[in-house]
Amino acid sequence: GAVVSQHPSRVICKSGTSVKIECRSLDFQATTMFWYRQFPKQSLMLMATSNEGSKATYEQGVEKDKFLINHASLTLSTLTVTSAHPEDSSFYICSASSTYKSEQFFGPGTRLTVL
Amino acid sequence: AQKVTQAQTEISVVEKEDVTLDCVYETRDTTYYLFWYKQPPSGELVFLIRRNSFDEQNEISGRYSWNFQKSTSSFNFTITASQVVDSAVYFCALSGTGTASKLTFGTGTRLQVTL
Prior knowledge:
heterodimer; A: mainly beta; four-stranded antiparallel β-sheet; 0% helix; B: mainly beta; 52% strand
């Protein structure tokens, strides 16, 4: 149990376009989802925490207008990178937790490349 | 504020050697969780262990063992008889015990096991 999926696994886009990444909890209801970003050879940095039905809480330095997060249901959260630029190229990983599963379960990640 | 320090950036060992990955943490919480994750080249995080701050017993799982020393705020990870498949980046992480607790990751240790 506790499987989290992400789609797409890899995306390449042109500068200026918007990209949506989906994070789904497949076998449990995720009351909280987290979005992380990992640059090459660096650690995972938390971008934002989202609770189902409410606005996401962004970490300091993360632009909320650029990284739109929606957690509309207990099994789905989306991260939209708006007007992506090459510096947004990174590995984006989501995780999910619930009232009954206090630890975070991680998705396989999405590698975004902006040309 | 929470902080996790992994002082070893890269470690290179020959197969069958034992290797210890160090992790030192800082937190003001009285209860917390400590984690170790493995990140192979594919990028997906692999959960290895979660330790509650109340439980200072060392744990062994096959070739893996963990040494939790609350007195020195350390949670070290030892791989016995390392194998090439152990080559990966290993992250130590810390969180509170609530369902929406943030995970704070260390900078990771890249382990290279060669023949």
